Amino acid sequence: SQAQVGVTGLAVMGRNLARNFARHGYRVAVHNRTAARTTALVEEFGHEGEFRPARTPEEFVTSLERPRRIVIMVKAGGPTDAVIDELVPLLDAGDVVVDGGNAHFLDTRRREQALRAHGLHFVGSGISGGEQGALEGPSIMPGGTAESYRVLGPLLEDIAAKVDGAPCCTHIGPDGAGHFVKMVHNGIEYADMQLIAEAYDLLRHGAGRQPGEIAEIFRGWNDGRLESYLIGITAEVLAHTDAATGKPFVDVVLDQAEQKGTGRWTVQTALELGIPVSGIAEAVFARSLSGSAELRAAAHGLPGPTETWLDSAASDRFAEDVEQALYASKMVAYAQGFNQIQAGSAEYAWDIDLGATAAIWRGGCIIRARFLDRITAAYRADGRLPTLLTDEHFREALAGAQSSWRRVVTTAAQLGVPAPGFATALAYYDSLRAERLPASLVQGQRDYFGAHTYRRTDRVGTFHTLWGGDRSEEER
Ligand code: NBP
């Protein structure tokens, strides 16, 4: 009998995804440009299930039952197009082609349109969870037509992570919706990681704690509302000692963070949509700054504050404040990310269910966290919530956190410990809640130098003041 699903591209992700399908009892056709990877997979893991190795794309396609379900797991960009071009002439109307790589959602929209012209379903699917997730259950964010989800959904739900018995996979929406949501997921991941890193830095260089002690603090936090995969692994990394030097591992790693680009895409897209995702942007910039070795070397030795440490009593209370600040800043970062999804959904008519999106991030993916239940609940209660921050739970948490949050940002500034993520989150919060913003002054400046006009609070219409003349106002 023919294979039920095919995977082409058998590097770490594709191989583990193919094994995941096989372990769930599916007959899996496997193919890779370089045949050695296909052979190796079958030799090493053939006992795990029914694999149908194929040496050529033709062999791969004919080994699949129809409508065919093909998952492409190759390097994003040109390689994905190359594989699609190779497969399309071999396929039949109704077949479903999935791109499980980290494609840009605009590429996915283009590919979906092109394949639709051939009567094929193209599904751009976000898959999160890395190598281990692919094998043991990732969080899956498929886009594409409703028909494609009917053919493909049950298999994806089978291999996805489960939380309380529910699969971490849902049909996100048409064409690029899945990859868009995956992109924002990665952006949020950047923000979350940056905030955790800042919490560490404040405990280390503000409160004078050692990495091992901070690991214990994080373990404690992981038993509470901050419980998440990222906090858990952070504690592990901080507790780790470098074998070669006997020093804390975190002290021997070069402090220049790298990036593959999905965080940058999130910010670029947010700029286009006009959505302030300052938490994600600061995280991307923080990585860039860390990598600017020459700049940092040149600036090293610039004057800093004279106060450099908290005393020990203050330091104990400070750890509690940092937990509050981290929770509040994290709320802001997620609220911003969900606003971006909301905006993308409106712009491209995707009709994305925000509550369902938060629910499938509870398992399998890097940002999995207890906290996501709160987001699902907030959007279930009100699908049109303008910002998560006004939901009852979030509002109460902010009320409880805000004075700690302010102390942490103030202390960071006083001690000269950079906390761009915490600071920008607080500034966003205060900006949103402000009754009046100095944007009125910016409008005045714009009108002064460029006659860009302004609106008034007390009358409708568009106005200009004759700044160079008698400063009378005229309606434009
Ligand atoms: P890579 O991104 O390293 O890609 C390697 C695969 O692409 C190999 O199978 C390679 O075939 C194939 N390939 C290339 Br390169 N050029 C090709 C071409 N012109 N035609 C056909 N095949 C080509 O693999 P990965 O790390 O498993 O990631 C796969 C996708 O999943 C990527 O889009 C990645 O961004 C995404 N992703 C990765 C992770 C992760 O944790 N690694 C997590 C989530 C998503 P070869 O063997 O013949 O060279």
UniProtKB/TrEMBL annotation:
What EC number is given for this enzyme?
1.1.1.44
Q: Which UniProt keywords apply?
A: Gluconate utilization, NADP, Oxidoreductase, Pentose shunt
Q: Give me the reactions it catalyses.
A: 6-phospho-D-gluconate + NADP(+) = D-ribulose 5-phosphate + CO2 + NADPH
Q: Which Pfam families match?
A: 6PGD (PF00393), NAD_binding_2 (PF03446)
The record's annotation in PROSITE patterns points to:
6PGD (PS00461)
MF-aspect GO terms? NADP binding; phosphogluconate dehydrogenase (decarboxylating) activity
Q: Which residues bind NADP(+)?
A: G9, L10, A11, V12, M13, G14, N32, R33, T34, V74, K75, A76, N102
In this protein, the active site sits at K182 (proton acceptor), E189 (proton donor)
Q: Which residues form the 6-phosphogluconate dehydrogenase C-terminal domain?
A: 178-468
Q: Name one GO biological process term.
A: pentose-phosphate shunt
Where do the annotations place substrate binding? N102, S128, G129, G130, H185, N186, Y190, K260, R287, R446, H452
The metabolic or biological pathway listed in the UniProt record of this protein is:
Carbohydrate degradation; pentose phosphate pathway; D-ribulose 5-phosphate from D-glucose 6-phosphate (oxidative stage): step 3/3
The job of this chain, per UniProt, is described as: Catalyzes the oxidative decarboxylation of 6-phosphogluconate to ribulose 5-phosphate and CO(2), with concomitant reduction of NADP to NADPH.
Give the record's family classification.
Belongs to the 6-phosphogluconate dehydrogenase family.
Please describe the quaternary structure of this protein: Homodimer.
Identify this protein by name: 6-phosphogluconate dehydrogenase, decarboxylating
Q: Which organism is it from?
A: Kitasatospora indigofera
